[in-house]
Design a protein that fits this description.
heterodimer, A: mainly alpha, Arp2/3 complex 21 kDa subunit ARPC3, about 70% helix, B: alpha+beta, three-stranded antiparallel sheet, elongated
Chain lengths: ~200, ~200
Amino acid sequence: MHISEGVLSGPVLAGGAVISAAGLALGLKNIDYDKLPRVALLSAVFFVASLIHLPVGPSSIHLVLNGLVGLILGWAAFPALFVGLVLQAVLFQFGGLTVLGVNTATMALPAVLGYYLFAPFLRGGGKTAPVIAAFAAGFCAILFSAVLTGVSLYLSGEAFLGAAWAIVVANLPGMIIEGVVTAVAVLFLRKVKPELLGMGPYVE
Amino acid sequence: MRLTISAVLFALILVLPGAAQAHRISVYAYVEDGQIKGEGYMPGGGKVSNQQVQVLDAGGKVLAEVKTSPEGAFSLPLPQAKPPLTLVLNAGAGHRATFELKAADLGVAAPAPKASPAPAAAEPVAQAVAINQDLAPQIKKAVAQAVAPLRAQLAEMALRSNEVSLRDIIGGLGWIVGLLGLAAYFKARKMAGGAPR
């Protein structure tokens, strides 16, 4: 879902940059002293996760974990993902610097959406609701990222609507894997570091 | 403690060869016998099959178009245009790679010796040239054979350059830690300055 340099049209690039700038401003405001280490930690998680490829059928897909980042950080997902994307662009030529705005928006917007939709369920008691919510957060984050990627390509005249949908379908295994990984990570964090999820320590 | 263990496991996964690759396609090409030949690579060593390759001139005009084979290879006649030429591999879904063929890569041949009316003294030279021209196909073949391993090595390197090195990953993580320190420093100063004591 890292769109390469030279694919998107100017207006789409500018639109992505504006959305990302707004998200970054909101996210930075959202970070207080206590939250800072969490932002850096999840930025590192995202940076590394994108480099791990899982073989799926003839091709391979990589983790994004923007769902997990969003669940824990909310709006601060914007700066966290932005830093990871800048480093990936500079060090690995993943995506590129001109596409940074669009790539940040396509990955961070779904993360923030997941925070509002699913994070409240994580703090509740029981085990089923948090697991289902975490799976849904991981799944939907990739789904919406794929949709936004398709839309940016479609608006640039790069892909027809059918091709844009093909991106969503191609990412289906990724959605399921992200859902499972996010659910496992949330279960683990609930046990070991519940305060990361905004829960007081020593729950359960 | 358990977090530390999982962090170590995480790092181990990264070190495993082949576990870490960039999600980035690349394209490599060379010119042989008036043909552009090349391959497109997927992250992890796969080939980019059945995707469009375009040849652009310096002004960005599309000169030729071809699709990669199921094995990821492509070849097309070298278009008559001034170098540098740019190859663009477009694998859809926002994945795109380029490769530049410079004048030297095109092997712009030295102008062929003209068959000028040679003076009698130059007869042996003319003969030598004639013999050389007879030999030319064989020489070409021999050279092609000799550079074949080199070409394979270059293709291998093009493939390798697609991989992410552990050094870069550690470097990136170092940057994140550094940014954290920077942000913490300024936040702490603001807090110290803002709170009247």
